[in-house]
Amino acid sequence: MSRPQHPIEVRRRAGVLLHPTSLPGGSGAGNLGHAAFHFIDFMADCGLSVWQVLPLGPTHEDRSPYQTTSVHAGSPELISLDLLQEWGWLEMPPAPDPADPDAWHLECLRRARSRFQRHASAADQAALREFIDSHAAWLPDFACYQAIKDTRDGEAWVDWPAPLRDREPQALEAFRAGHGEAIEQVMFEQFVFFRQWHDLRRYANERDILLFGDIPIFVAHDSADVWANREGFLLQEDGHPQVVAGVPPDYFSETGQRWGNPLYDWEQMSRSGYSWWWERIHTQRDLFDLIRIDHFRGFEAYWEIPAAAETAIAGRWVKGPGAAFFEQMLTRFGDLPLVAEDLGTIDEAVEQLRDAFHLPGMKILQFAFGSGADNPYLPHNHVPLSLVYTGTHDNDTTLGWYQSLDAAAREHLVAYLGQEATDMPRALNRTAMASVAWLSVVPLQDWLGLDGSHRMNQPGVRGGNWQWRFEWDWIDADLPGRIRELLELYGRA
Q: What is this structure's pTM?
């Protein structure tokens, strides 16, 4: 069974990569409020028709959207308090505490629920109940997990008292009975997040803009998903992982990368018809028009590392579920609006799996220069069923990348472009638009011409990541016109 071409892939498009936390406004980070709608207006003015974001789930202290406490839930951090006030669900809150904006934000959400209980219309009250019922596959477990975690000062579930850690029915019943308000608060926050996101998606779709999401193949060990579905993961009796995910040693790291995520028990998941994954993709389809699967190669084979190993050297390749998984998803959904993140160590088997289901892969222009003409990231090697990027959230900005190039790579870049690359990043933005790839995505930093100090994430570096934000006055008045002209030139407007 092969995946047919999805209708949204029929025409050439161009997009922008920007996580909502990078939007202006809000106390500690950007949110789904007026700035998000204004950003969609900006995109429409430019002729851009795809907004790509990172995973939207609740993050841990490091704020990485790739290590969340739920694969279904939205981050309360993204909820707009301004919209809550406009809905009549929140009175004007006190001034935020600059020392702890997160605590202030959560206090405002508690006030919003209190006012909602007293003043919300019957229709809104019914909508909340309907939301809880329709997300029964994951929401009660997540709400209980989050409430327990909050009462234990953020402690990981594997360190909870054994009855709660192991989900003994009597222990869970007793906790729910004593912490009903906290559990209902979590459910209310998810109701608000999903309502605000759906309003934003509707606004975008009305302007011919698609929302593009991201599914990390692996999940955080400290998450509601692993706690509530231990049978689907390779864990010890006490909940600690038997083996963990990562990638083998390569040119970039002599010891590889030990990510630490628990690995799936694919045999068990297969026996259940991959129901856990079906629910996961179902939630993301409800949020997005297009979805990227991060580390796609793990479905063909993944690097399994003993949990006790300190590095990835002792790992081994283990076969993943392969075509059987995607056949099941295709049978369930009828179509798969998925993109394969096929970067890194990719072999023929991974490419065959990607191509068998007609999934677009990714081409990164920052990886293209400094080697031979057979480099798959060079534009003359692109194929229509692919996405081209100047760089991703894990790369330096294109200007920062260009400024750090060695002499050989810079010489190759200049020779390939046929001109001095003094107009960076515009020269690479133009190259991305000219590609035959169906979709061209440029990070906002590159549309704005920003240097490496505006980088979103630096893999392998602790601290300082995921915090970048822009300001409206960084956007020149003539930028939308310049972008639209470029998109029209290459048939992407």
A: 0.96
